[in-house]
UniProtKB/TrEMBL annotation:
It comes from the Bacteria. SUPFAM superfamilies: Smr-associated domain-like (SSF158949). The lineage of its organism: Bacteria, Pseudomonadati, Bacteroidota, Cytophagia, Cytophagales. InterPro entries: DUF2027 (IPR018598), Smr_assoc-like_sf (IPR036781), Smr_dom (IPR002625), Smr_dom_sf (IPR036063). This is Uncharacterized protein DUF2027. Pfam families: DUF2027, Smr. Residues 276-327 form the Smr domain. PROSITE patterns: SMR (PS50828).
Length: 327
């Protein structure tokens, strides 16, 4: 089951769409008129797209006209969330990359592959509800050099309503998280690796639309060049990875939890430094057992954006700091 899937209660007649997954194996379902109810996961079943089509009664053809004075009724449940980027294996070497709309929104979108200073347009257009579009293919042997997938989208439906803010999501695949995202791909109903793009995109947009975002999407759809925007904050020149600098109650953490926290901070700051065009950044890791230093050096040695790294600030930290030179 995925966000946006249409479902039916096992012991009832209600139908709705999955809005969120809650703790305790509970799913939040949006039913008629926008009401949301929590139900146990084993109390619902998904409705297949084929069944949904068979249940829809044919309507007489009518001319669609945009009218500002018409408010679209919310009698039926409306899937607001469920936009994904998915990787599906063709064989043991190649994967296809898809953008998926498992919502009831109409989505004007652009998709760009950003690699170092070069950006490649993958696709642009309008993604209808419950549809997908193939963007490109990637090779598993090139995993470490896969580009950052930059997805921009607007939300549209007829009538008067409040829109979510425009979607702007960058996905950089990491080995540690990529394989954790394995599951059933919505709409395509195949096994793959799935990233939800709108998981945190719940805020509503104030009246009016951002001219910058609208202009950027329009330019991309017309094939015009658009300067890449960076939304990652610029990190400090020196990052201290000592656990007491990162969390308050570090004494309650296990060794594995401490190392994980330190590596997460390292990865996020290195990525931000690269995205902001910094020439170098220094990480203070201490001497200690050498576990943190060794893992940092292992990851730096595999990062294509790192020109070189070396011990830094010896007069102050001995061998407890590493200077990273960025390409």
């Amino acid at each position: 089951m995925n966000i946006g899937d249409k479902v039916r209660l096992v012991h009832g007649r209600e139908e709705g769409v999955i809005y969120a997954f809650l703790p305790g194996n509970v799913v939040e379902i949006e039913i008629e008129d926008g009401f949301r109810i929590p139900v146990l996961r084993n109390e619902i079943v998904t409705i297949s797209p084929v069944e949904s089509q068979r249940m829809v009664k044919p309507e007489e053809a009518k001319v669609a006209a945009a009218r500002a004075d018409v408010i679209v009724p919310r009698n039926a449940p409306f899937a607001e969330k469920g936009i994904y980027l998915a990787f599906i294996s063709v064989n043991d070497r190649t994967l296809t990359v898809h953008v998926i709309n498992n919502t009831d929104w109409v989505l004007p979108f652009t998709a760009v592959a950003a690699s170092e200073s070069v950006s490649k347009g993958l696709a642009a257009g309008v993604l209808q509800p419950r549809t997908s579009q193939k963007l490109t293919e990637v090779e598993m042997k090139d995993f470490e050099s896969w580009p950052v997938f930059d997805i921009h989208a607007l939300y549209f439906r007829e009538g008067n309503h409040q829109l979510p803010i425009a979607l702007n999501k960058r996905i950089r695949c990491r080995a540690q998280s990529f394989y954790k995202n394995k599951g059933k791909v919505p709409v395509l109903a195949k096994e793959g690796f799935v990233y939800q793009l709108d998981e945190e995109n719940l805020k509503r947009e104030a009246p009016g639309i951002s001219e910058d975002v609208a202009g950027e999407i329009k330019a991309r759809m017309l094939g015009q060049s658009v300067p890449e925007q960076n939304n990652l904050p610029r990190p400090e020149q020196v990052i201290d990875l000592h656990i007491e600098k990162l969390v308050n109650n570090h004494k309650s953490l296990s060794s594995d939890a401490i190392l994980k926290k330190q590596l997460d901070v390292f990865e996020s700051n290195l990525e931000s430094a690269i995205a902001n065009g910094m020439d170098e950044i220094t990480f203070i890791h201490g001497a200690g057992s050498g576990a943190l230093k060794n893992e940092l050096h292992r990851r730096l040695g595999k990062n294509q954006h790192v020109q070189f790294f070396k011990d830094a600030l010896k007069e102050k930290f001995g061998y407890g700091a590493t200077l990273v030179k960025i390409k």
